Amino acid sequence: MSYNNTVYCGYCYQKGHNQRGCPKKKQYAKDNPDSYVARDVKESAAASKNRRCGYCKEAAGHTRRTCAMYKSDFKLAEKVNVAYRAKVLELLKQYGIGIGALVKYEDTWRGNGTTMAIVTQIQWDQVDFRGFENSGTVRFIGVTPCSQLGHRYPDTEWVSPPEVPWYDGDDSAEGAAHRPMKALSMLNPVSVMAVEATVPEGWVDNIGKVADFYSGDHYQSPRDTAERVAKKMAESENKSE
Ligand SMILES: [Zn+2]
Ligand SMILES: [Zn+2]
Questions:
Q1: 225 is a domain residue
Q2: How many CB atoms lie within 10 A of CB 43?
Q3: How far is CA 202 from CA 121, 130, 170, 205, 230, in A?
Q4: For 9-18, b where at least 16 C-beta lie within 10 A, e where not — what string?
Q5: Cα 38 to ligand 1 centre (Å)
Q6: CA 8 – ligand 1 centroid, Å
């Protein structure tokens, strides 16, 4: 494939197909069954039959691009992620979590107890539906402890919002001890307008980092998570009706 995405055939040099899809090559192979070309066509057909899909690992003669499982999984992930981000944004507006908000959280890690802080950063690209069961991925709110304001290099602590949409992670007391969640509570929220002013354009509809998990041979597919979120979403909709 050339730089501008145009395919050229290595057999007939025409634009728009490759050797494997070349009608002239196929015709020649048919007319000359004992030729080298005929053998080549036969071998590459057998090879493509045995090729494993990088996504579903089935030797079903297809690639990730044409994998039905990949397509439906990715579609679900997109749908779930849009719903998840929309919900997170709703919560940020509801609580008034934006740059400049005054918050507090329990600093269990350093043993500093209740810490007052100002929201100074929001890592929008960290927010995706995997936060539903992994509290580690929902610490996307960067705060500077008030005691550090005015320092030349103030610390940034990463904390999570008071609520995580449809959260289904380890919420037990035992789990909490290991959970670096540090949920904040609001002392002085910012306005809805102030929250909206910092949301990147198109953020809700963007699948973000989840896409990486579908593009490489990643050991961890978020498909199961997407399915669980979808189920939780449906349940909570039924409950509110
Ligand atoms: Zn051709
Ligand atoms: Zn496949």
A1: yes
A2: 10
A3: 19, 19, 31, 6, 22
A4: bebeeeeebe
A5: 14
A6: 8
Indicate the number of domains in the chain.
Answer: 1
Q: How far is the CA of 67 from the centre of ligand 1 (A)?
A: 25
Q: Cα of 223 to ligand 2 centre, how many Å?
A: 14
Question: Tokens 């709110």 belong to which residue?
Answer: 141
d(CA 182, CA 180): 6
Tokens of 200: 């990147």
Q: How far apart are CA 73 and CA 228, in angstroms?
A: 13
Q: What length does the chain have?
A: 241
Q: Looking at the domain assignment, is residue 212 inside a domain? A: yes
Please tell me the distance between residue 65's alpha carbon and the centre of ligand 2 in angstroms: 8
Residue of 50 and 74 predicted with greater confidence: 74
Containing structural domain, residue 191 = 82-233
Name beta bridge partners: 106: 114
Question: Residue 8 CA: which ligand is closest?
Answer: 1
The average confidence (pLDDT) of the chain is 85
CA 52 to ligand 1 centroid distance, Å = 25
pLDDT in tens, 25-56: 999 999 999 999 999 999 988 887 777 888 88
**86 belongs to a structural domain:** yes
Looking at residue 65, the DSSP 8-state letter turns out to be G
Residue 129 CA to ligand 2 center (angstroms) comes to: 23
For residue 203, being part of any structural domain is answered with yes
Question: E strand or H helix at 87, and its extent?
Answer: helix 68-95
Give the closest ligand to the alpha carbon of residue 221: 2
